[in-house]
Amino acid sequence: MMRVLPEGMQLGVASAAYQIEGGWNVTDKSLSIWDTFGDIPGTIADNTTAKDACKSYEYYKRDVAMLHFLGVMFYRFSISWPRVLPNGFANKISKDGAAYYNNLIDELLANGITPVVTMYHWDLPQNLQDLGGWTNPLIADWFEDYARVLFDLYGDRVKTWITLNEPKQIGLYGYGTRRFAPGINAHGIGEYLSAKNMLMAHARAWHLYDKEYRAKENGTIGITIATDFREGQTDEPEDIQAGLDAMDFEVGLYSHPIFTDKGGFPERVVKLVEEKSKQQGYPQSRLPEFSKDEIEFVKGTSDFYGFNHYSTKFYTRKTYKEGMYPVPSYDDDLGAVWSLLDYEVAILPHCTAIPQGIRKALKWVKDNCNNPPIMITENGFGTLAGLYDEERISYLIKYMDSILDAVEVDGCNVLCYTLWSIMDNFEWSSGLSIKFGIFEVDYEDDARPRKARQSALWYKDLVATRTLKPEYRPFVDNMVF
Ligand code: BGC
């Protein structure tokens, strides 16, 4: 059935600095944790690197031409901290780094495209990691200083700021496991220390903007949280509880301190981590506490809920056994086992198409986060290759259909939808082989030509007609940028 998009729901596409820019060592840019991590043998599945990636540092004008072709209203991109502040600290601003984003923002505005800027999408300056990175509480100071530099440089033209992209992935994968940079693997400890520090850093940036910039710049600032859905494997009460707990661990840990009236970490997470910590002989819970003042400081610090969503997992405790996960660890604290039931698993399992999950996740946010305005800041599908990407189009259609149910039936307040991603890029530890782009990038060619996939033409039509047409499949022309 054809459906018309709600009036006012804006459409855009997204990328992130490290995944597209390349230019890893130009002028005075310093190394990020991903530059360092990517050089360790065995960390990137296909042994590729992001040293050049899509070369957007050089070819950003072509990116903007693609956006213009799509007709999207906004572009979500991120700023590389070590490109703007080569020392990590705000004592020195890189002239070239600052200029790069000035040029990109001006080019977007000249083409009528609104910049939506993520301040941190995972590429921490390596020297700050050497000082503990997100496990050092002082990072709240460093992040606030960095935020001030960005507001001063770009706040006259950037009116939507996203502080952090996906605290769970930063903390759990980067500090609680080896999956992402910096690969600290301090499971059961690192993910919780960094969770608190990220929330404090985020809140500092929000308060800074609120106090010193909002009146003159009139913009908005919020956080983006990975909000995949988790639910019980069956309708039995224990499974339902496992699903609710998984939502609290995966999403609530980051949303509860900001979006609820009570603030602080979710009760169930506090209780489960405290119990396990005690059993394991820790004199204190491995989950740090917020003081009363900190709870108040973090509460209410997001003008919108930045919502990233790809898929759903189903949980049970029936098959959980002590010792199946590292002890201590986040997985062990949750003490449950997940599956994808009998859904057809996608090439990247975290993109398995379970479209009703996005509706449920949006409803969860409405019910558990004080019905905030929601910016869908990412949704998309990873494939192996090809200009005809039927799998992606069909995923996008089903997910958009489910979003429309969330808006029209459940009354979720969705401001915008952002497709991940504008073009193929460096998919973190999966490397360059996994393709999320609606434009295909030819990495063999030094000029990195970008070709429109069928999904790009399909999205262009959605943007132009604002009508979701399940049967529509455009002709793939040879559109190269
Ligand atoms: C991240 C993106 C990533 C995407 C697809 C999100 O978790 O924000 O950087 O490319 O998922 O895996």
TrEMBL record:
Classification via InterPro entries: GH, Glyco_hydro_1
Keywords assigned: Glycosidase, Hydrolase
Record Pfam families: Glyco_hydro_1
Keyword Hydrolase listed: yes
Signal sequence, renumbered to the chain: none
Entry annotated with the keyword Hydrolase: yes
Family in the record: Belongs to the glycosyl hydrolase 1 family.
Protein name: Seminal fluid protein
Organism: Chilo suppressalis
